[in-house]
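Example record for the data management plan.
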Amino acid sequence: IVHYGNAHSGHFITFRKPLNSELTNNINDEWLQISDSTINRVRTNMLLNSNVYMLFYDKVSQKFINTENI
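Corresponding structural encoding:
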């Protein structure tokens, strides 16, 4: 989660790592940037430069994990 603004007002956006089935051309450093009704595909460097202050982790079923690139 990223917050833009100050303590009295602002806007929150979130980044989410796509599942393998949601990747574009198997780009492993791709993330989804979600803001209200807009979803954009961004690269890891954009995420790392966004002052992310809260992370959440989801447990993913083994059938969604692609181990070919590990």
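Summary line stored alongside the record: The two ends are 27 Å apart (CA to CA).
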